[in-house]
Amino acid sequence: MSVSFALGLTLGVLDLAAIAWAVWRGRGVAATLAWIFAILVVPGAGALAYFLLANPAIHRAARRKRDLVDALRKRLVATPVASPEDVLAVCARTTALPVTDANRCVVLAEDAAAFAEIEQALATARHSIWVEKYIIRGDQTGRAFLELLTERARAGVEVRLLYDAVGSFGIPRQQVARLRAAGAHLVKFLPMNPLRRRWAVHLRNHRKLIVVDGTAAFIGGMNIGDEYAGRVRAPAMLFRDTHMRVEGPAVTQLAEIFVEDWEFATGEHLDLPTVTLAHGDAVVAVVPSGPDQRHNSSAYSYFTAVTSAQTSCYLVSPYFVPDEPLMRALCAAAMREVDVRVLVPRSNDVRIVAAAARSYYEPLLECGVRIFEYLPSMLHAKTLVVDGHISIVGSANADVRSFALNFELGLAVDSPTTAAQLTERFEDCLRAAEEVTLPAHQARPVTAKLTWRLARLFSPLL
User: Fold this and answer.
1) 384 pLDDT exceeds 80?
2) Given 387, 389, 441, 449, which residue is catalytic?
3) How confident is the model at residue 83 (pLDDT cuts 50, 70, 90)?
4) Is position 380 annotated as part of the catalytic site?
5) Which listed residue (213, 241, 261, 323) is catalytic?
6) Is the pLDDT reported for residue 410 higher than 90?
7) 402 and 328: one domain?
8) Which of 87, 96, 144, 427 is the most buried (most CB within 10 A)?
């Protein structure tokens, strides 16, 4: 038997085993077909990718997380809002977190100013700093952030940092060591360790949360890096984003999410801070979501918000790969003569996602949805504003990954003030965007359309 024949036979057996396992597991028709396509197109490598990225460790970890959340979330004490708006009510039902009022929400729309406010809050922390981030880079912003945490830990502040093992792979190791030496607690979320059957590469913590002294929280789309903080030389390399500062009862629930994730990662139980009061106008539903949920709260909140829209619906998503329910909701809203606008970046840091996104344009445009592409730089904000009073802000993109695989975190806010701030931001971005029209989109070269459609085949995996 020749070496080439033996190798071919081995790859064939591996491919057949991967396809059989994918069919047996039955994790959705679209995802199963996409994996089979990938396995057949790239023999051997496609099968290895399947066993690496879609193995049962994902579901074991998800079940473990769900059991923990079910146990911890019962202890929350809050005075729920009597009759919240439909979107917030759905969020409460899917998360078991009551809707709260009297919150103060401030939109942080300018990246440099947002980081300045976050750094000021950290520098003045007196008791505790809890941080949960997907990406912490080893650049100027990342090093300054870690140095600030180190200084606060040396000052006696309780510092806890939970960072994603994949997203923050480049975190500076020397600064991590100094931070630990200063007394801070640092933990990776789901480190990849085959000896402990932890190969759930797909199952990532995409949440961005900072809780300071249990009284203020920062949440949204911003990671820790120069491109998010406005510290890059070339404007085109900026990541224009949106974050939010929150005060009030919702902060306790955000702290609860950190406590759950910390205990999931470490086994260590933390006490919740006392309920904080604020004098704001915002009714808030905290929206954690992930594969541990029986009904993904991010997916349900987006769908409910769009379907409930009466006059306007403004969606911003950097990675726009909508699932079928969201596609139908957007199209149906436009058919009801709701002013539906979708804003995405023209230049995307993940090219295959940008290509897949354009494959969704035509059916949306045909239904009356207006699509705009932001031109100056990468648009990284994830926001939705409906009818001038309901807003969703957080880490979840309007894509399959955020609605099925990632752990995400956001807020659904009923507040005309917050909605007005986000609408102003949206309109400002529109002035630097170009509208995609149906005739122009249909006139694009056949090669471009073929690229879009090929990329779309992988959309359940993106």
Assistant:
1) yes
2) 387
3) low
4) yes
5) 213
6) yes
7) yes
8) 87
